[in-house]
């Protein structure tokens, strides 16, 4: 239950499930903004044919508050037509972690704003971008606590060695997202 800032009354949380090329993605939020995106755990990577599966809301489409509509539109573009992402607004966030001032919040906002589709940064590079070059471990902690994966692209943060590192949605999903972005970016460049 997420409390709204004014008066501390709980907001009316809504849930939608988006059927995506990587499985069912659960999205929760309210009129104020997104609370959380829960990724499916993948045990098998989708092959080329499966990855062209359409993005459809399969549960909870009835009364979607605007941030959830924006989120599903954004994710649909992310998976199915990345060129359209530039014209879509990033939905508002309404998660306590993204409200209070902290290094974690700073890192997540920096990642959202500075690391573009198809790019990757190391934990150390992200620490530099967020203003504390010695905080690579803290960046790892911020990635683990990211409530809005994919939109806040923690999958784009890799180890300095080039190894992908760990990911909340699992190693396979991280690799799939990185290769999806690389392929789509190449298509857009043509």
Automatic annotation (TrEMBL):
One of its GO terms (cellular component) is nucleoplasm. NCBIfam families: ogt. This is Methylated-DNA--protein-cysteine methyltransferase. Residues 20-90 form the Methylguanine DNA methyltransferase ribonuclease-like domain. The lineage of its organism: Eukaryota, Metazoa, Chordata, Craniata, Vertebrata. Involved in the cellular defense against the biological effects of O6-methylguanine (O6-MeG) and O4-methylthymine (O4-MeT) in DNA. Repairs the methylated nucleobase in DNA by stoichiometrically transferring the methyl group to a cysteine residue in the enzyme. This is a suicide reaction: the enzyme is irreversibly inactivated. Its EC number is 2.1.1.63. Belongs to the MGMT family. It comes from Oreocharis arfaki. It is an enzyme of class 2 (transferase). Its main location: nucleus. It catalyses: a 4-O-methyl-thymidine in DNA + L-cysteinyl-[protein] = a thymidine in DNA + S-methyl-L-cysteinyl-[protein]; a 6-O-methyl-2'-deoxyguanosine in DNA + L-cysteinyl-[protein] = S-methyl-L-cysteinyl-[protein] + a 2'-deoxyguanosine in DNA. PROSITE patterns: MGMT (PS00374). GO terms for biological process: DNA repair; methylation. CDD domains: ATase. Its cofactor is Zn(2+). Pfam families: DNA_binding_1 (PF01035), Methyltransf_1N (PF02870). GO terms for molecular function: DNA binding; metal ion binding; methylated-DNA-[protein]-cysteine S-methyltransferase activity.
């Amino acid at each position: 239950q997420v409390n709204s800032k004014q008066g501390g009354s709980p907001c009316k949380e809504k849930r939608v499930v988006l059927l995506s090329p990587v499985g069912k993605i659960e999205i929760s939020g309210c009129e104020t903004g997104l609370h959380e995106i829960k990724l499916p755990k993948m045990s098998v990577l989708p092959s080329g044919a499966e990855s062209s599966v359409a993005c459809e809301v399969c549960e909870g489409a009835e009364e979607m508050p605007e941030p959830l509509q924006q989120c599903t539109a954004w994710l649909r573009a992310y998976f199915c037509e990345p060129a359209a992402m530039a014209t879509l607004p990033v939905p508002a966030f309404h998660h306590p972690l993204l409200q209070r001032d902290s290094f974690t919040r700073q890192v997540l906002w920096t990642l959202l704003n500075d690391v573009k589709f198809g790019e990757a940064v190391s934990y150390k590079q992200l620490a530099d971008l967020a203003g504390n070059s010695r905080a690579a471990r803290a960046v790892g902690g911020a990635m683990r606590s990211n409530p809005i994966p994919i939109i806040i692209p923690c999958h784009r943060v890799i180890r300095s060695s080039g190894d992908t590192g760990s990911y909340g949605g699992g190693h396979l999903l991280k690799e799939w997202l990185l290769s999806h972005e690389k392929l789509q970016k190449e298509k857009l460049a043509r």
